[in-house]
Design goal:
This protein is of the alpha+beta class and 218 residues long. 26% of the residues lie in helices and 29% in strands. Strands 1, 2, 3, 4, 5 and 6 form a 6-stranded mixed sheet that branches.
Length: 218
Amino acid sequence: MTRRPRLLTTAAAGATALLLLTGCGGGDGGSKGNDKIAGADTDTSPSASPSPSASEAADRPKIELPSDLSYTFDWPKTGNADKDAVLADSEQSIKAVDLAITNQNALDKAYLYYYEGEAAAQTQQFIQLYVKAAARTTGSYRYYDAVVNVSGPKTASLVYCEDQSKAYDYYLKTKKTDKTAVTKNSYVLYATQMNKNAKGVWVIEKLQSQRGSSKCQP
């Protein structure tokens, strides 16, 4: 997840090292490269047979966010049980990070329910930037062009786009919103690697992003 421009620009070295959430709107802290993320072009997943997902019955954390923060997920159901579970858990993982930011808690239990290993460590560092700045997110996010690849019973990947053109940083002490201009960097390509844990939840192990990707431009 790459977001929040000025906030992450302030911590440029740490932010760019994360390959994660790096500025919103016109921010320029996104990861650099050849505008390609593995798996972004094709879905080579086998046709997984529908099976009951344990994630539906898992003891999930409750995610309640401020009313000024909203999400639109334009990735309809695929009809494949495993792929739809990946999409559903990914939605919750995105919201859980903003909940941790809202709670100003870099060890918030909700996001740690959906992230582990390298991705959890990177996300913790990202959230800490918001805690240090006494800021949170506001506005609306849109997610689209999702490509799911289920490569095994417990392994999957997801590539998708994020529109941050109407999302901003809100500073808690001054109660001011930093509204940034919309540029090509307001659109971000993400690629995640996931595994299904013992609870049947698809958790994120690795996350990469490419800000300003041509694949996500309107």
